[in-house]
Each structure stands twice: as structure tokens, then as C-alpha cells.
Amino acid sequence: PFFLASGEFSLNTFLWTLWDCFMTVSLGIGLIVLFREGSRYLYKGFRQFSQNTYGVYLFHVPIVVFVQYFFRDLSEPIYVRFLIECVVSVLISFAFTHFIRKSKTVRKFI
After folding, report:
1. Could you tell me if 90 and 52 are in contact, meaning their C-beta atoms sit under 8 angstroms apart?
2. Cα separation, 61 vs 93, whole angstroms
3. Under 8 Å CB-to-CB from 64, ≥6 apart: which residues?
4. List of E strands, 57-107
5. With 80 as the cut, is the pLDDT of residue 9 above it?
6. How far apart are CA 101 and CA 93, in angstroms?
7. CB within 8 Å of 110: residues ≥ 6 apart
């Protein structure tokens, strides 16, 4: 399209690069502020999810590998299998982290 820069050094490329960087940083900062301010009014369920996110980050890889291994023989198209694996992995990751955080020793670390 006409609004994308072609790749060589020109005024159009320079302006497009500046605009792209400005929008990326602005959206990142804006979303952080939006979620920080909006989180004060969220109900307890979202707060519970946010407390478990670091644990999900730590433990999601082996859970995803296990889920992919479990669904390896599924004969659905790849995009359907991907969606199923994503949903199942997220649910298992949050459930696993929720239950291991009940231990006071574990809660100190995650």
C-alpha cells in the first residue's frame, strides 16, 4: 500500500519509522496505565488470575509439552488442535498454579 515505506532511506521511510516507534511505545504505556487503573475495579476472579500469572509463567512450558503429547494423535485440522491445546494448557496452568500457591512455602516464591 501507499502508506508503507519501501525500505530504502528516504523521508517517507524515516517518517514511517518514527510514527511506528511512537505508536508502539504509546500503546505499550497506555495499556499498562489502563490495566493498572482499571484493575482497582476488577472483581475478585481477575485478581486471583493476576496473582497466579508468575506461577503460570514458570510452569507453563512442561504443561504445554504434556498437553501437546496428549493430543498428538488427534485427527483434527492443525488449527483446531492448536486452539484445543491452547485452551487446555491455559486452564491446566492456572489450576496447577492456584493449587500449589495454597502452600505457604511456595507462596513466598511465586
Report:
1. no
2. 9
3. 85, 89, 93
4. none
5. no
6. 12
7. 54, 55, 58, 97, 100, 101
